[in-house]
Design brief:
Elements lengths: L1 H40 L3 H14 L5 H13 L3 H14 L5 H13 L6 H11 L4 H8 L1 H7 L6 E7 L6 E7 L2 E6 L10 E2 L4 E2 L2 E6 L6 E2 L10 E6 L5 E12 L4 E14 L2 E4 L12 E6 L5 E5 L9 E5 L10 E2 L10 E6 L5 E5 L9 E5 L7 E2 L10 E6 L5 E9 L2 E9 L3 E9 L10 E6 L4 E6 L5 E7 L3 E7 L6 E7 L7 E5 L6 E7 L10 E6 L2 E7 L5 E3 L7 E5 L6 E4 L9 E7 L25 H16 L4 E6 L6 H21 L7 E7 L15 H7 L2 E5 L2
Parallel strand pairs: 23-29, 30-36, 37-38
Antiparallel strand pairs: 1-22, 2-3, 3-6, 4-5, 6-7, 8-9, 9-10, 10-11, 12-13, 13-14, 14-15, 16-17, 17-18, 18-19, 20-21, 21-22, 23-26, 24-25, 24-27, 27-28, 30-33, 31-32, 31-34, 34-35, 37-39
Helix pairs in contact: 1-2, 2-3, 3-4, 4-5, 5-6, 6-7
Length: about 700
């Protein structure tokens, strides 16, 4: 009995010890998880990751919350392969895996250069969550994602700044040097380690031209903890700096660092903070502010009411302050993150996004604010890693890019546009040569793809920066009036090139009407049409003397006609408000010395030998052909008397005699044709069996000369 009591006592002691151990282990695990939660909520993912990893490895079964938190910590601390390994476990083993877990896994596949598995992962995600729009979007854009790896960029890149002890990013030009953001310095504050990265908080660094040592920029007084990036207005009067304001999450009792945007003004070389921007809020971040040439402000924010994640916003500058932010909408923003905006001199918006189809992480895109799909900037600007903070000077083609493509470490790269660019000025006038203000002009590339939109000023002018040597199409169309114009041009190196658009009626036709010196329609005139002094077309008038040149984009033309003086017409500045624009011109006769009198080319009855007076006129034809590059037809005709077939033969012999003489004087046989028409082209009523006078029959016995090419 005593032994039994002792055994029971021992058992109780053992049970108590085991219970105490389990309780202690439970409390220890609970404490670790609480601590990990607190670190993660404070964005201290570097320190929270190993705790989440330990909790996940200690668990006898897969704890969805722990693993999901582990994946987040690994993702945010750029340990992407580890994040992917646990993501695969989560989606494969947990019934509680959700659609967002698949979206995260898809992103991780790109970041770790395993895009070949995207299709399978997307298909599995849709199988389990067929109605999820994010996964549907991935499936719809899979071809675009795969194609993005093949998009060639218009830029080359090379490493500009790196750091052994930290990271650098977001470079921009500054007088006498370059400013960039860095985590490699500690400017003297206590505990300046940022938990999310495990590095120092950011400082703005100045790299002076010609100096081998970069230094902390003291232009704006250092704040705590983060500073940067910073951008400047065109004249460097204003600076737009991203920094922190700290707030406390009272519910979870953790410190949260959110970003804010501060505008500084330069007065006599001293920067001081302003209250021009009043839209910061401790409940969300506002960051990466930049302005265009009109001082309109663009920035990234996760403020409520967006499309998801961080969106891009615009604040209009009203001359004294910034108006309320306006979301840039679905032409720019997605359910992912859009940040690091930059507006170029030519008005294009460059930004980084995780939402638009890309190669992985943040990709750089370009938007014209009009087309729904921004343009992926291609390789090598983009990679499978985070590519961001892109900026470029449109005219010099030089700029900067930040990327962590090398070992997940942020570095600054310099970019260089492959071609050359310059400003192109466009002028829009109406049919009375009056400037058309506040009108839209669309610019297209030579392949017809939309390039950008211009809006004319009070003088009917606007400009854009185009690639030298590239063809563009400028188009104006007013739907209300129906007036329009379109012109194709090559952007030339000439700095004074101006493209003029002339608004004319929508269905306007342009007719060239030529009249001989006798006041008759000019048949057989050679019209050469030119555009920018380049021959576009050659046309010979018919008996009506008219040519429709509506569809021919020409600015000048020359007219050559036998026995008429050559004429040159410039229609470059011609404007007409009429639906049918008739360009009428009466030609002037040649001087008597060179006038070819075809009536003197006569023949004896039933003969085709040339008379002396005929040879004199043919010599004029030869002289004319030697000074004009053209092709002629010399034709002979008879009256109606005699047999038709004989008249045709006789007229051909007469034409041959003229042409043979001309060829014998050195004119190529390819340039002149002999044609006998017999009695088939009578000039009057004197057909067969009609009584006519000798004078009337003489009108039909004639020789004609006309230009045929």
């Amino acid at each position: 009995m005593l032994l039994l009591v002792q055994d029971i006592f021992k058992m109780r002691i053992t049970t108590f010890i085991l219970f105490a151990f389990i309780t202690t282990a439970f409390h220890a695990q609970s404490y670790k998880q609480t601590y990990a939660e607190k670190l993660s909520k404070s964005y201290n993912f570097i320190e929270s990751y190993p705790i989440w990893l330990e909790l996940a490895q200690e668990s006898t079964s897969l704890d969805t919350h722990v693993v999901r938190s582990l994946i987040t910590a690994a993702f945010e601390s750029e340990q992407y392969q580890a994040a992917l390994d646990w993501s695969v476990k989560l989606t494969a083993q947990s019934k509680d895996a959700n659609a967002k877990d698949f979206s995260t896994q898809i992103q991780l596949l790109q970041l770790t250069k395993q895009s070949s598995k995207l299709e399978t992962t997307i298909a599995e995600g849709l199988k389990r969550f067929p109605d999820n729009k994010d996964i549907q979007n991935w499936q719809q854009n899979l071809s675009l994602v795969q194609a993005s790896y093949q998009i060639p960029s218009d830029y080359t890149i090379q490493l500009f700044r790196s750091s052994e002890t930290g990271e650098v990013f977001a470079a921009s030009d500054y007088p006498e040097g370059v400013l960039y953001v860095s985590t490699q310095y500690n400017s003297g504050f206590v505990n300046r380690i940022y938990g999310k990265t495990g590095q120092y908080f950011t400082d703005i660094i100045f790299a002076k031209n010609g100096s081998k040592k970069d230094q902390i920029w003291n232009g704006i007084k250092r704040t705590n903890p983060h500073d940067g990036p910073v951008s400047f207005s065109k004249t460097n009067r204003y600076a737009y700096m991203t920094s922190n304001h700290e707030s406390i999450d009272l519910e979870n009792e953790v410190k949260i660092n959110r970003l804010k945007l501060v505008i500084y003004e330069n007065s006599l070389g001293e920067w001081s903070a302003t209250d021009l921007f009043k839209w910061n809020n401790s409940d969300y971040s506002v960051a990466h502010g930049v302005v265009d040439d009109s001082l309109h402000l663009y920035f990234s924010s996760d403020m409520p009411g967006g499309f998801g994640g961080a969106d891009l916003y615009r604040c209009t500058w009203n001359g004294s302050s910034y108006e309320a932010p306006v979301n840039l909408g679905p032409i720019v923003n997605t359910s992912g993150d859009e940040n690091f905006p930059f507006v170029s001199q030519d008005g294009f918006l460059y930004f980084s996004s995780t939402g638009w189809p890309g190669m992985g992480g943040l990709d750089v895109f370009r938007s014209d604010f009009i087309q729904k799909q921004p343009k992926n900037m291609g390789v090598p600007v983009n990679s499978n890693a985070d590519d961001f903070a892109f900026s470029v000077n449109d005219l010099s083609g030089k700029g900067y890019l930040s990327s962590n493509r090398n070992n997940w470490k942020d570095e600054v790269f310099s970019v260089q546009f492959k071609g050359q660019k310059r400003y192109v000025e466009l002028v829009l006038q109406d049919c009375l040569k009056k400037a058309l203000p506040n009108a839209s002009i669309s610019i297209y590339n030579s392949d017809g793809n939309y390039y950008k939109k211009l809006t004319t000023d009070d003088f009917g002018k606007d400009n854009f920066i185009g690639v030298i040597g590239q063809d563009y199409i400028a188009t104006y169309m007013n739907a209300q009036t129906g007036f329009k114009d379109s012109i194709r041009f090559t952007n030339q190196l000439d700095p004074y090139q101006t493209i003029v658009l002339k608004a004319t009626p929508k269905n306007q036709t342009r007719i060239l009407n030529l009249i001989s010196y006798k006041g008759e329609p000019l048949d057989g005139a050679l019209v050469k049409l030119f555009s920018d002094e380049k021959l576009v077309s050659k046309i010979v008038t018919k008996k009506e003397g008219t040519i429709d040149i509506t569809q021919l984009k020409v600015d000048s033309l020359t007219i050559t006609a036998i026995n008429h003086k050559d004429q040159y017409i410039s229609i470059k500045d011609r404007l007409s408000c009429e639906e049918k624009d008739i360009i009428q011109l009466q030609m002037k006769p040649n001087s008597s010395a060179t006038f070819i009198n075809l009536d003197l080319i006569l023949y004896d009855f039933d003969k085709w030998d040339l008379r002396p007076e005929s040879i004199k006129e043919l010599d004029k034809v030869i002289a004319y052909m030697k000074t004009n590059d053209l092709k002629l037809e010399l034709s002979s005709h008879t009256d109606s008397r005699g047999i038709d077939s004989y008249n045709e033969w006789l007229s051909q012999q007469r034409s041959n005699s003229c042409v043979n003489y001309i060829i014998s004087k050195g004119i190529s046989a390819e340039r002149i044709i002999a044609k006998g028409y017999g009695e088939y082209k009578l000039k009057n009523r004197c057909a067969n069996d009609i009584n006519c006078t000798d004078e009337e029959h003489q009108q039909n016995r004639r020789t004609e000369l006309k230009i045929i090419q």
